[in-house]
Amino acid sequence: MKSKAGNPSIKDVATRAGVSLGSVSRVINKIENVSPEVRKRVLQAMAELDYRLNHAAQTLRSRSSRTIGCMFTDVTNPLYAKLYRIYEEKFRENGYMVLLANSLNNPEWEIEILSMFQSRRMDGIIIAPGNERDASVLAAVEKMDLPVVILDRDMNAKKDQVLFDHAQAVKEAMLNLIDQGHREIAFVVSGTHTRPMLRRIEGYKAGFAARGLKARADLLVKLPSSTEPAFDLVTELLQRQERPTALLTLGTSVLADVLNAIEAQGLRIPRDISVVSMGDPDFARSHRPRISSVTVDLNLAVQESIDLLVTRMREGPGGAPRRVMVPTIFSLQGSCGPVPAVTPRKKPTRKQ
Amino acid sequence: MKSKAGNPSIKDVATRAGVSLGSVSRVINKIENVSPEVRKRVLQAMAELDYRLNHAAQTLRSRSSRTIGCMFTDVTNPLYAKLYRIYEEKFRENGYMVLLANSLNNPEWEIEILSMFQSRRMDGIIIAPGNERDASVLAAVEKMDLPVVILDRDMNAKKDQVLFDHAQAVKEAMLNLIDQGHREIAFVVSGTHTRPMLRRIEGYKAGFAARGLKARADLLVKLPSSTEPAFDLVTELLQRQERPTALLTLGTSVLADVLNAIEAQGLRIPRDISVVSMGDPDFARSHRPRISSVTVDLNLAVQESIDLLVTRMREGPGGAPRRVMVPTIFSLQGSCGPVPAVTPRKKPTRKQ
DNA sequence: TTGTAAGCGTTATCAG
DNA sequence: CTGATAACGCTTACAA
Lengths: 352, 352
Description:
The structure is a homodimer. Chain A is α/β, with parallel strands linked by helices. Chain A folds into three domains: 10-53, 434 Repressor (Amino-terminal Domain) (Orthogonal Bundle), CATH 1.10.260; 67-164 and 297-325, Rossmann fold; 166-296, 3-Layer(aba) Sandwich (Rossmann fold). Chain A is built from twelve helices and eleven strands. In chain A, strand 8, helix 11 (252-264) and strand 9 form a beta-alpha-beta unit. The radius of gyration of chain A is 27 Å and the shape is elongated. The first copy, chain A, starts with 9 loop residues before the first helix and ends in a 21-residue tail after the last strand. Chains A and B meet through helix 4, helix 5, strand 2, helix 6 and helix 11 of A and helix 4, helix 5, strand 2, helix 6 and helix 11 of B. Chain A binds a DNA duplex through helix 2 and helix 4.
């Protein structure tokens, strides 16, 4: 038996191939200056010994882990799952792996995750912290001395950022509805104070404002969180004396609850009520009529953030932080129609 | 200025604290034998220098990366997203990070991912390959010389496995339906030849068999894949002369399509048709009536696999592979009812 | 309890 | 084009 218990190292390969350490390393790293003869011998020795590269040693010496860190609040949210998948795919093409961490909106974990990214010497990280306004998280981000891209968060940090232009498409949706005669347009939102929600509300108000109208607070239905059941709150909304004739709503499970609540009230889309969803979840794809939506081109968003990150990796921490805005898309579908002719009422029966 | 350009190392900390390398290491690793005085000085020096542990060096020397690898087909599938989240949470408690990789059912990637797990010296891996029957994937798994747990796949490998007992709860569901008078029970499945699907079909057939009935091939509706739109195929099914009175179906987006198709046909659940879903996706939670489901306790499944993995990490590769079966749960809800009194027909109108 | 020194498996920098 | 050798930053005996 040649080797000891442990895995064979580059050294064993060198000995077996009758070449030096350096040559083996050159073959592994596909560096030009190596004769076909040596390459062949090395490759053969590696195969014979079932040699496996030691990534830790490589990282230690080369100061690059070939790993990108992603910190999202929750992969269980399809948006982040999709983003992660695209990131992974694109980075894999270049030999990078992507390390994902869910912060679950916990600021302490976010700080800890950042610290692990730091000690694991990520070549770059892409983060969307749940706590934009938490000073300690902000400080932790600021302190990172590796390339960082912040994804769709309003953080006052000197880091590169990719931002989704939520307000724009929401406003578009609003104009469409208003111009079809809608005035009582409700918006089912979550109470989270993070950028996506805040910017959408901005767009909602901007839509009204652009037509000389004012947003009414009672039409903004706030859920405790975006994963909370929305059925009851929406049902209450639909049962009001003057129920809304149109509804903007969060996507994912909130949209499901909204659709079920509408159905349960015996209302028809778009005859009785128009609906626009933030994001278009898979489950809604076969819904008839199709649900109008406000979305982002995720591939584009990913590409922009990768470009930013790669540039930063190349050019170092110097230079002003860059900011890229990704447009949002209002997709008009059958779920939006003209306002009902008659002002809708709760029920013909008067309160007893 | 004390240090050079690079990050401060344990050495810098030692110098600054006026102690030796070893002492600093002991403090970092929370080893007992260290006086309060030394500990204090070290901690202070670390803070002052803004010291960051180098994980690569730690891994190289200690031969443990404190990282667990997870290979799933696709985090975009809520099942895997949920599993990953639970794994991450449980492992984090012990200072481990979890490295996730999506194989997207591509055998070559699966092999490459396994190889990266190997070179990155994962302390253990949990995998659910998309290609149970691919010989090269099987060989790659077999060759792994680190602790492996295979999750819900029928692979003939000498590795620990956690298996979901799909057939059991599906059979339960079938018995319930049959005993309520149903005979024409369809099953919307995907054409993938992996364990979950195969075992469920087993349970489907076992249900019929237990009541002296035989499964009919024409009631098994095969989708190209579980992410493919199912609306048209299900609509076709529902429009048959003798349409099924009950329907088992994949969850996630397939269930959405099924519900929409049922609705589009003007059928009511459970009056006209009973429905049972494999898994209960979030979007269906507010559906009325609630959808009966066949599920697995994911927390339990995760715990079992972690137990297996930890045991293996402790005891080494020796010893026979273990196998744990996790029960499935049939949850009866309002979507299941007695078979309609009259044999259903497509429509009263005869073919013209 | 603390200090010393020998690696862990690579890559990088030199000579040759 | 190839070989020797010094790091990289840490853990871990072992010695004091």
